[in-house]
Amino acid sequence: MQRAEFLARADLNGNATIESVLNYQTNVEPQKRSKVARIQSVDKIQLAPDLPFGLMIRRGQISWFEIVPIDIKVLEYAELSSARKLAIHQAKQCGLALIMYASDNDDVLPDSAGVREAILPYLKDSSIASRLVLTMPRANMSEIEDPAQTRLGYVEGPGGRAIIYADGHVKWIPD
Question: I need a labelling partner for 69 at 20 to 30 A (CA). Which of 19, 95, 118, 148 fits?
Answer without folding.
Answer: 19
